[in-house]
Amino acid sequence: MAFIYSVKDTYRAAVEAATGGKNTVLYDDQGNPSIMVVIPKFYLDDVITGAPHTVHPAFIVNGVEKPYIYISKYQNIVQNSRAYSLPGQDPATYVNFDQALSYCYAKGQGWHLMSRAEWAAIALWCKKNGFMPRGNNNYGCDTSASYEKGRETMFDSGAGKTGRTATGSGPASWSHDGTPDGIYDLNGNVWEWNSGMRLNAGEIQVIQDNNAAILNSDHSATSTLWKAIASADGSLVAPGTAGTLKFDNSTAGDSTQTDHDIAGNIQLNNTIVNSMYTTDPTTNNYYANNSLAFETLAAASGVTAPNIVKALGLFPIDSSCGGDILYVRNYGERLPLSGGLWNYGASAGLFALFLNFFRTFGSNFVGFRAAYVL
């Protein structure tokens, strides 16, 4: 008996055949396609030397281990309030955090905004496997390889140079594994919102494992899903519990109500000794901030970074992370942006993390990508 294949089946089969099964096509609840990269399950000790042989949290949803996660091959566009991963597009921007969540969850069961756990899993995998992707971090090209260029989709009129480039239009070195089958544009182009993690008055808070992937997982400011991390053993505890991990500053902050850099260094601590803005630790305004190369982030005296913050890309596993930047405001609620943008140079990359903006922020350099797990 002959089988009759649908157009969907044919398209998926063609993509899978062309990539040896490393890519696939997934369809949302309206039947529209996204090209996804298949990431098989791996363990912490696969990517972090000395870590236990436990599954990376990106592959655990609602207590169940998942054999694969699926990551958008391309930074997403938005059509009919849904997110799509397609090549050759100008990535969606002016998208705030809650909108990014909504565009992903709207696609149906299994779809979600790429989580911090998933982003960190990819970053650690790349580092362990000796390939850190380049990208659009120098006005349309890569700062370390100016001959590598993407196709311009937005002109940066302030700089008089290329800004954004079309999704996947750069060379294979702009993908996470250095092949045409990888995840593109994780280094530069536009910052990307991640789900499942936030900074709240300096306290690191997460949604357990990869439970941000559960349909309509509550990421609101008052959600009971947010958990803090105990510095003693890395266990998840109620926010505000004494001794939880925080991003502190090594020197005193100030009360100046302008956007400015503060002295000292960001450090991992189990208390906030120095709020960068001294008047109100709950304000979401954009006043003092600090930054450093992620690989230089250190723990305060007497504090040891547990494996969970390393697994989530919140603390370096060694002193070689490409010079990628970490920005922090340790007051108010700050949602994570990852990867950098088109003018960040060597500061952009897989370990670049921006914990400066509130959930309502949007700009021409802020986008996102969906992921899928079921």
Summarize this structure briefly.
The chain has helices spanning 7-19, 44-47, 97-105, 116-128, 307-311; strands at residues 23-27, 33-40, 60-61, 64-65, 68-72, 77-79, 82-84, 111-113, 141-142, 145-149, 155-156, 161-162, 191-193, 197-200, 203-206, 227-229, 236-237, 246-249, 260-261, 266-269, 288-293, 298-299, 325-328, 333-334, 337-339, 349-355, 366-367, 370-372. By secondary structure, it is an alpha+beta fold.
Main sheet characteristics? 7 strands, mixed
Strand content: 25-35%
Look at the helices and sheets and give the structural class.
alpha+beta
Poorly predicted spans: none
Percent range for helical residues? Answer: 10-25%
The number of distinct helices, counting runs of at least 4 residues, comes to 5
Q: What do the pLDDT scores average to?
A: 96
Number of strand elements: 28
Categorize the overall geometry: globular
Task: For the record, give the distance between the C-alpha atoms at the N and C termini, rounded to a whole number.
Answer: 32 Å
Could you give the order of strands across the largest sheet? 19-21-23-26-25-13-27
What value does the Rg take, in angstroms? 20 Å
Question: What attributes does this structure have?
Answer:
single chain, 374 residues, alpha+beta, seven-stranded mixed beta sheet, five-stranded antiparallel beta sheet, 28 strands, 12% helix
